[in-house]
Design a protein that fits this description.
The chain is of the alpha/beta class and 626 residues long. Helices cover 34% and strands 23% of the residues. Strands 3-2-4-1-10-9-11-15 form an eight-stranded antiparallel sheet, with helices on one face. Strands 5-6-7-8-12-13-14 form a seven-stranded antiparallel sheet, covered by helices on one side. The chain has a five-stranded parallel sheet with strand order 17-16-18-19-20, with helices on both faces. The protein is globular, with a radius of gyration of 26 Å. It starts with a strand and ends in a 17-residue tail after the last helix. The relative contact order is 0.09. It binds glutamine hydroxamate. Glutamine hydroxamate binds next to strand 6. The site of glutamine hydroxamate (HGA) has 16 residues, from strand 6.
Length: 626
């Protein structure tokens, strides 16, 4: 999703801004731009192509300067078009109360300003000229309207008028060596430069890899003033009831070793394929150091929390919601703890009945997912203090906000369609299940040893599933010609069917839906014809015989079945029934294996259709807007 980079330096900073954008490209975007202070004024270049095109454009147009901001945009307000791309400049008609010449303020923004209509009307009435449909342009004009020679002061006053979520980086024509940032609801970090007093802003420390590893994570409501050789942070002072007063705050500088190696594709065609094949390593890294099951795997004080809670509430979005949905089966059957799973964007706005003895579990790859963060805060505001996150980024807002955490070690995930983040989340959630089971007296030593043995064997088992790739490629050819697909699963594997359908939708644009197989006859069977491929996840579990009946129901209507069957299921290939045999049956951990061929099926179908696999249309990584 949106990426922000900003800098104050004595050298030409454009190459570093562009490099920063390239590091954030994987999040997905539809346009990009850069602006600098140059020859006493503002210069910018914007593009609806890739950052590489922007790079060529700035070189050709000789856009260069020591103070600048840059942005990758994922449109929320206004179409993806050059005139809507950031940076936005303030400009007026020159009439009315507008005192400045056009082009005084340059600004980039991540988030959504909810009161943009009201502010736009007000600023239009004052003579400001709007050249985009974005909510962002409103902030540029607002800062301009409040500017009286001190950009930091103008931005602070502007933030008091904004409703919604934002991370912004701003500079002003009249103050050549200054960039001001602010955040509320969207991430922003300050990078303390290591040479010649330069300082940086970015939406993610990864954007600054190779430039500085000295990072300050700005907190909600912070406004930061960046100058050469110094920076200054202020936050609203709510202590004496005067929310309009700002006070200086100190934030710790952390040394962050942002990953840079992940950008190498190696022998793979796409990051998604690379990440699918990294899963054995990702799972083994995630389980590294787990020698026994103990609540302390989730942080100090976890035992007391686990002892205290009587139910679990999982909050997540997208693929993470499906890992949570899988964990519900584990938590209820193994740990015997009542569990609810809620889509974060729904939960945050609905009236629910809170129980203070709930363990609130959030799941997020990036740890910056706006809806999940908001749902977490909502749950806490309802009086549920016990929070735990399963997250892939140790320095993220989610980890900082939660009482307890399990950090998955998937490594940087570049492909927009999540794969290794999903399976490592499942590994973390299984550990959580075992730890809760232990505290609740439902896990004896022999069971613990057996589960741990199975978990340690996962990387090897995953390797043998990945070896099925050539067979899956054979199926992908047929799928590439379809426009619809159904996915079926039962029990623990129903969320895996949902995840398989989501993967296919996301990257191949084939309409896919998943159902619990028993639901088929209650509606979706009407869709089944010889043109409808029906993908079935068929592990050898207690529901196998029921599933076999569901398979017959599809066959009787001429549907084409594509079955991923465990070795000992006795489901054989026949007319209209295509079977790929999973190498081994894996009990409770089977979802971690069964999802892999579904990832491969989506991937190879998308390749056969020629889509942009790593950057599917309209989608973004790290969904930092609501
Ligand atoms: N609302 C702004 C920024 C969108 C954003 O943060 N995307 O990730 C716009 O539409 O330009």
């Amino acid at each position: 999703m949106c990426g922000i980079v900003g800098a104050v330096s004595q050298r030409n900073i454009v190459p570093i801004l562009i490099e920063g954008l390239k590091r954030l490209e994987y999040r997905g975007y539809d346009s990009c731009g850069v602006a600098v202070h140059q020859a006493g004024g503002l210069r910018r270049a914007r593009s609806t192509s890739r950052v590489a095109e922007l790079d060529a454009q700035v070189a050709q147009e000789e856009v260069q300067g020591g103070t600048g901001i840059a942005h990758t945009r994922w449109a929320t307000h206004g179409a993806p078009a050059v005139h809507n791309a950031h940076p936005h400049f303030s400009h007026g008609t020159g009439a009315d109360a507008f005192k400045a010449k056009p082009g005084r303020i340059a600004l980039v923004h991540n988030g959504i300003i909810e009161n943009h209509d009201e502010l736009r009307d007000e600023l239009k009435a004052r003579g400001y000229l709007f050249t985009s449909q974005t909510d962002t342009e409103v902030i540029a004009h607002l800062v301009d309207s409040l500017y009286d020679g001190d950009l930091f002061d103008a931005v602070k006053r502007a933030t008091l008028r904004l409703k919604g979520a934002y991370a912004i980086a701003v500079f002003c024509r009249d103050e050549p060596h200054r960039v001001v940032g602010a955040r509320e609801g969207s991430p922003l970090v300050l990078g303390v430069g290591v040479q010649s007093g330069e300082n940086f802003l970015a939406s993610d420390a990864m954007a600054l890899a190779g430039v500085t590893d000295q990072i300050i994570y700005l907190e909600e409501g912070d406004v930061v003033d960046l100058q050469l050789g110094k920076y200054w942070i202020e936050a609203r002072d709510a202590s004496n009831g005067n929310a309009e007063r700002f006070v200086r705050v100190e934030r710790p500088v952390r040394t962050v070793h942002a990953h840079t190696g992940a950008a190498e594709l190696g022998p793979y065609r796409h990051y998604m394929q690379k990440e699918i094949f990294e899963q054995p390593r990702a799972i083994s890294d995630t389980l590294d150091g787990v020698v026994s099951i103990t609540p302390e795997l989730f942080g100090d004080g976890a035992y007391k929390v686990f002892k205290d809670v009587e139910q679990v509430l999982i909050l997540a979005c997208g693929t993470s919601y499906y890992s949570g949905s899988t964990a519900k089966y584990w938590l209820e059957s193994i740990a015997g703890i009542p569990t609810n799973v809620e889509i974060a964007s729904e939960y945050r706005y609905r009236d629910s009945v809170p129980n203070p003895k709930t363990l609130v579990v959030t799941i997020s790859q990036s740890g910056e997912t706006a809806d999940t963060l908001a749902a977490l805060k909502h749950a806490r505001s309802l009086g549920m203090p016990h929070t735990l996150t399963i997250c892939n980024v140790a320095t993220s807002a989610m980890v900082r906000e939660c009482e307890l955490a399990y950090i998955t070690r998937a490594g940087v995930e570049i492909g927009v369609a999540s794969t290794k983040a999903f399976t490592t989340q499942l590994a973390g959630l299984f550990l959580l299940t075992l730890a809760l089971a232990q505290v609740r007296g439902r896990l004896n030593e022999a069971q613990e040893a057996e589960h741990l043995k199975a978990m340690r064997h996962l990387p090897v088992a995953l390797q043998s599933v990945l070896a099925l790739e050539p067979q899956v490629i054979g199926w992908a050819e047929a799928f590439a010609r379809k426009e619809n697909a159904l996915f079926l699963g039962r029990g623990l594997h129903y969320p895996i069917a949902l995840e398989g359908a989501l993967k296919l939708k996301e990257i191949s644009y084939i309409h896919a839906e998943a159902y619990p197989a028993g639901e088929l006859k209650h509606g979706p069977l009407a869709l089944v014809t010889s043109e409808m491929p029906v993908v079935t996840v068929a592990p050898n579990d207690t529901l196998l015989e029921k599933l076999k009946s569901n398979i017959q129901e599809v066959r009787a209507r001429g549907g084409q079945l594509y079955v991923f069957a465990d070795a000992d299921t006795r489901i054989e290939s026949s007319e209209g029934v295509h079977v790929i045999r999973m190498p081994e049956h894996y009990g409770a951990l089977s979802p971690i294996l069964h999802v892999v061929p579904l990832q491969l099926l989506a991937y190879h179908t998308a390749c056969a259709r020629g889509t942009d696999v790593d950057k599917p249309r309209n989608l973004a990584k790290s969904v930092t807007v609501e």
